[in-house]
């Protein structure tokens, strides 16, 4: 039986997008959410918060989402947490690249706050079925 999704770490540099997503995931989705404003914070947050799933923005200053995913995977002290990208960069070649890098899925931006929790849960469910 699939384990339920409970805890999500969301890494997004835009404060307004981060706030809307957090409200959508917590208030509408009933999830526990921890947010980070950049990729550098993500590894520490994964250790402290122990999320079931990490949602990563792709385009962030400094360490972008792709580099953040690589850093999370390269750290042997971190558990292999499933990662999905939330991005406006959703051309088929871009999505294929994210999936080849190990993402479990992609949610396009702009996202619908009313549907976000359902989209995240659907990615989680599909991942659980394939694991």
Kindly list the characteristics that best describe this protein.
131 residues; alpha/beta; Rossmann fold; five-stranded parallel beta sheet; 5 strands; 47% helix
In short:
This protein has 5 helices and 5 strands, in the order E-H-E-H-E-H-E-H-E-H. With 131 residues, the chain is of the alpha/beta class.
What does this structure look like?
It is a single chain. This protein is an alpha/beta fold and 131 residues long. The chain is built from five helices and five strands; from the N terminus they run E-H-E-H-E-H-E-H-E-H. Strands 2-1-3-4-5 form a five-stranded parallel beta sheet, sandwiched between helices. Strand 1 (7-11), helix 1 (15-28) and strand 2 (32-36) form a beta-alpha-beta unit.
Question: What's the SSE blueprint?
Answer:
Elements: E1 7-11, H1 15-28, E2 32-36, H2 39-49, E3 53-57, H3 65-74, E4 83-87, H4 92-100, E5 105-108, H5 113-130
Parallel strand pairs: 1-2, 1-3, 3-4, 4-5
Name of the top-level CATH class: Alpha Beta
**CATH superfamily caption:** Response regulator
Proportion in helices: 40-55%
Q: Name the helix and strand elements from N-terminus to C-terminus, one letter apiece.
A: EHEHEHEHEH
Count the strands? 5
Biggest β-sheet, characterized? 5 strands, parallel
The CATH architecture: 3-Layer(aba) Sandwich
Strand coverage percent: 15-25%
């Amino acid at each position: 039986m699939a384990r339920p999704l409970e805890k999500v770490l969301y890494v997004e540099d835009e404060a307004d997008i981060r706030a809307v997503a957090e409200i959508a995931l917590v208030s509408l989705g009933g999830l526990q959410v921890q947010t980070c404003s950049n990729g550098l914070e993500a590894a520490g947050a994964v250790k402290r918060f122990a999320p079931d799933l990490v949602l990563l923005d792709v385009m962030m200053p400094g360490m972008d989402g792709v580099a953040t995913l690589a850093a999370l995977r390269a750290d042997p002290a971190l558990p292999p947490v499933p990662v999905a990208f939330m991005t406006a960069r959703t051309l088929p070649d871009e999505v294929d690249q994210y999936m080849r890098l190990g993402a479990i899925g992609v949610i396009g931006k702009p996202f619908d706050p009313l549907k976000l929790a359902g989209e995240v849960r659907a990615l989680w469910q599909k991942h659980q079925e394939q694991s």
